[in-house]
Amino acid sequence: MRTDTHYHIDQAQQPLNVLRRAEQAGVRLVAPSLHPASYRAILRLQQQSRAIRWVTAGLHPEHQPRQTDVREALQQAAVADGIGEVGLPCYNRPPNMRDYAVFRAFCELAAATDKPLIVHAVRQQAAAALALLQQAGVRRAVFHWLKADRETVDAIVRQGYCISVTPEVTFMERDRQLVQWVPVQQLLVETDGPYPLRGPYAGREPQPAWVEDAARVVATEYGMSVHAFWLEHERTLHRLFHPQP
Ligand SMILES: [Zn+2]
What we know:
Layout: E1 2-4, H1 15-25, E2 27-32, H2 36-48, E3 52-57, H3 67-79, E4 82-87, H4 97-113, E5 117-120, H5 125-136, E6 141-143, H6 150-158, E7 162-165, H7 173-181, E8 187-189, H8 211-222, H9 226-241
Parallel strand pairs: 1-2, 2-3, 3-4, 4-5, 5-6, 6-7, 7-8
Helix pairs in contact: 3-4, 4-5, 8-9
The structure holds zinc ion.
Zinc ion binds next to loops.
């Protein structure tokens, strides 16, 4: 089973088209929500396609959330397969006190409900996010499409959390370096579609099947076959979404 562990399916121009192509390619996806309406849209799509494997509910940190959205997203997250996308803003603006409070609330919910947390926290926010997860006692998490220094990556790995890379690992030396710092048991692949990727992927809407490109490069880094990597990836996903009691 091959899985794109992060695809914003409700944001695709033609979601059903993307899902049909994923089904044909034998790839399923984890679909994180951006906000309450996004979560509802993903659940509707899940009714129409088996390609959506798990749906997580969150509030994307790069946007300034409304208080009513915070409340509703927390309610959705309490019953979803997992929690996310949540985290700390980095690209659009620096985090403020409210961002920390909202993220802390989702971390505490993940710890209380024992659900996996899909985290958006890159560069200088990664260490701050890790500290919040540790304080809340979050047991399972993914630092999605991480960009961080060695020290922070080592700390995330020591805590047992996962890290994901996209097909940009095929040409970005930084991402390849990251893979070398992470054990295969904690490495996931994703596209972060439908948001555009760079390099040879520029100008096209990402498809979940593109994770195969990332898997090929990652498998080579670990000195294993692509098939063996996908088996390991599947075990990692099961630990994440179906923990042993
Ligand atoms: Zn995302």
